[in-house]
Design a protein that fits this description.
Keywords: 4Fe-4S, Iron, Iron-sulfur, Metal-binding
Shape: globular
Protein name: 4Fe-4S ferredoxin, iron-sulfur binding domain protein
GO molecular function, one term: oxidoreductase activity
Organism: Methanothrix thermoacetophila (strain DSM 6194 / JCM 14653 / NBRC 101360 / PT) (Methanosaeta thermophila)
CATH class: Alpha Beta
CATH architecture: 2-Layer Sandwich
Number of domains: 1
Helix content: 10-25%
Largest sheet: 2 strands, antiparallel
Number of strands: 4
Distance between the termini: 6 Å
Strand order of the largest sheet: 1-4
Radius of gyration: 10 Å
Pfam families: Fer4_7
Oligomer: single chain
Length: about 60
């Protein structure tokens, strides 16, 4: 399973977008992180980088 973002905990900082080595994350129109499951390799970089702990891998 790809990384999952808890929309209620995301603070729209963009750190995950910057840190993702696969460019699998972008901010949507509401500035909330969204993971592209086709690109996500479940490396966990975004989980470690997220300051609000809004991302996890199932």
């Amino acid at each position: 399973m790809p990384a999952v973002v808890n929309r209620e905990e995301c603070v729209s900082c963009g750190t995950c977008v910057e840190e993702c080595p696969e460019e699998a994350i972008k901010l949507d129109d509401e500035e909330i992180a969204v993971v592209d499951p086709e690109k996500c390799t479940e490396c966990g970089t975004c989980v470690e980088a997220c300051p609000s702990e809004a991302i996890h891998i199932e």
